[in-house]
Design a protein that fits this description.
CATH topology: Rossmann fold
CATH superfamily: Glucose-6-phosphate isomerase like protein, domain 1
Strand content: 5-15%
Distance between the termini: 14 Å
Number of strands: 5
Number of helices: 9
Helix content: 40-55%
Order of helices and strands: HHEHHHEHHEHEEH
Strand order of the largest sheet: 2-1-3-4-5
CATH architecture: 3-Layer(aba) Sandwich
Radius of gyration: 18 Å
Largest sheet: 5 strands, parallel
Number of domains: 1
Shape: globular
């Protein structure tokens, strides 16, 4: 891991001393994601309510530039211009390299159909079954750590050979039983748990971006 990535993680503990105990797990998560992305894997995320919004946020900063520039390579630029000179030039200057991430909470058409026709409890689990492959990573956000639809998705992820990350509150919970790495933050109230989750996942996203795009 780059020294500059370690500095990002150190900065998390400096700005939020109450989260300093999470630094070692943050480093392990960055390493886990780097290994998966490097081998062509992808990240699947799920959560409910505010945690669903956090999943969408994480996908947004992984799929486009967060702080680092992510230009496409010269070979792709040439191919685009060969197809259409003007549009290719535009795309060459506009496209950004992303890290493949999918928020399972974002697909409202599927989610409402599956919940209505089959089971709201398995709405995330069925997506993990469809999207997930060995070598991918599944990231579950739950303020309680006991959300049944999130837990069932984690179970399917384990069965499919995915690595599982959990983020939850301070109490022992069912979700952690299915996680390779689970970060507990020092809070019980939902809004406080979510307040602590944000700087942690920002540090993870900054770190993984730094590993791939710090030129």
């Amino acid at each position: 891991m780059k020294d500059t990535t370690l500095k990002i993680v150190e900065g998390l503990g400096e700005r939020y001393p109450m989260l300093a105990d999470s630094k070692d797990k943050v480093i392990k998560i960055i390493e886990m994601l780097e290994a998966s992305f490097s081998e062509g894997g992808k990240l699947l995320l799920c959560g409910n309510g505010g945690s669903a919004a956090d999943c969408n946020h994480i996908v947004g900063v992984l799929m486009k530039s967060f702080k680092k520039k992510r230009p496409i390579d010269a070979a792709l630029k040439r191919k685009l211009k060969q197809i259409d000179e003007a549009a290719g030039a535009y795309l060459s200057n506009t496209l950004q390299l992303g890290l493949p991430a999918i928020s399972l909470a974002a697909h409202t058409g599927y989610m409402t159909a599956f919940s209505n026709d089959s089971s709201a409890m398995a709405v995330f689990a069925n997506q993990v079954l469809s999207y997930g492959n060995k070598g991918d990573v599944f990231w579950a956000l739950s303020t309680s750590g006991n959300s049944k639809n999130v837990i069932m998705a984690a179970m399917v992820a384990r069965a499919r050979g995915l690595k599982v990350i959990g983020m939850t509150g301070q109490d022992k919970c069912e979700l952690e039983e299915y996680c390779d790495i689970c970060i507990h933050v020092p809070a019980k109230e939902k809004y406080q748990v979510q307040e602590y989750h944000l700087p942690i996942y920002n540090a993870i996203c900054l770190g993984i971006e730094n590993e791939f795009f710090d030129k």
